[in-house]
Amino acid sequence: MENSENKEKIRLTQYSRGAGCGCKISPQVLEEILHSQFTFPDKNLLVGNSSKDDAAVYDLGDGNALISTTDFFMPIVDDAFDFGRIASANAISDIYAMGGKPILAIALLGWPVDKLPASMAKEVLEGARNICAKAGIALAGGHSIDSAEPFFGLSVNGIVQINHLKKNNTAKEGDLLFLTKPVGVGILSTAQKRNVLKEADLEVLLDQLTTLNSIGELLGKIKGVSAITDVTGFGLSGHLVEMAEGSELSAELNYSRLCLIENVNEYLSQRIVPDATYRNWNSYGKKISFAKEVNVMEAFSILPDPQTNGGLLVAVHPGSIEEVKEVLKQNGLEKFCVPVGKFIAADEKVIHVLP
Question: Quick one: 176-354 is in which CATH superfamily?
Fold first, then answer.
């Protein structure tokens, strides 16, 4: 029988080089990998690789569309059950980011069976089932391999009425920006990997990492919501760059209006920053300008901070602001009712960071 004391000492984050969505390949390298001259024409494919969107979308021919996505990564927390919950919530988020409703999930598991007990992998799957149940879907199967490092995620299918489908490249000039979660989880998760995260801050981190972005399904039904994406491994600034460039616009971001995850500055003062932050910044930093009143040193650590299961970044027509705010309030998201920026005509920089 497995020694429970030894099990307690196992820290999953010590078995992985990356953590959560910080495992992502950099935007610059990913663009090179995905570049191809080969295209397969399919009139029913509404969203594919070309738009850098959150999921693929396929027209079912009856006014509805199938949303298909997959997401997996190495451990971002030490507890196996929590790792399963976080990876699952993060994968399901892509369905919500398209304005859709998740309907089915299958698991993707890599496990170093010579290093970690099978019982921990079982706990990962139990965490996944917990989150899938909250999303109202079954974890219906999956695939596993013996791998050098542990990883876990889901392949998820969803459904959406085509007139409720939200893309990440359809923002309009004058749209206001809302963000539905705080930023800075990459910093706290790095603090945990270095074993300096306080217990109270771990609870805050876990709460955010396991909260479903189900608000996206409701926002998708609002006509004045022009575009949605979820903020993950490329950081807030990276996903806003994708949104703006895809929409052939620039964006203004009001830095002081951003909600930061609790106590993030305490860890920044200890110079705790994920390696992926620098990788992200090197990929798109030249596209961003800062007003002189902005604390650039802090913003440099916050804006490219890789998020896992981050909030939804939502572009809203001014005429629909009150409707969006009401939906946010009804779902306990009152503190995210203040717009954090807006889209403007394209100019020499993609993002202008303002006070």
Answer: PurM-like C-terminal domain (3.90.650.10)
Higher pLDDT, residue 26 or 274: 274
Percent of the chain whose pLDDT exceeds 90: 86
The residue annotated as part of the active site, out of 21, 23, 132, 337, is: 21
Range from 22-26, 215-219, 260-264, 271-275 carrying the lowest mean pLDDT: 22-26
What predicted TM-score, i.e. pTM, was given to this entire model?
0.92
Give the confidence band of 6 by pLDDT, cuts at 50, 70, 90: very low
* The CATH number of domain 4-164, selected from 3.20.20.70, 3.40.50.2000, 3.10.350.10, 3.30.1330.10: 3.30.1330.10
Domain with CATH 3.30.1330.10 in the chain: 4-164
Q: What is the 3-state secondary structure (H, E, C) of the chain?
A: CCCHHHHHHCCHHHHCCCCHHHHCCCHHHHHHHHCCCCCCCCCCEEECHHHCCCCEEEECCCCEEEEEEEEEECCCCCCHHHHHHHHHHHHHHHHHHCCCEEEEEEEEEEECCCCCCHHHHHHHHHHHHHHHHHHCCEEEEEEEEECCCCEEEEEEEEEEEHHHCCCCCCCCCCCEEEECCCECHHHHHHHHHCCCCCHHHHHHHHHHHCCCCCHHHHHCCCCCEEEEEECCCCHHHHHHHHHHHHCCEEEEEEHHHCCECCCHHHHHCCCCCCHHHHHHHHHHHHHEEECCCCCHHHHHHHCCCCCCCCCEEEEECHHHHHHHHHHHHHCCCHHHCCCCEEEEECCCCCEEEEC
- pLDDT recorded at residue 54: 81
* 21 assigned to active site: yes
Does 111 score more than 50 pLDDT?
Answer: yes
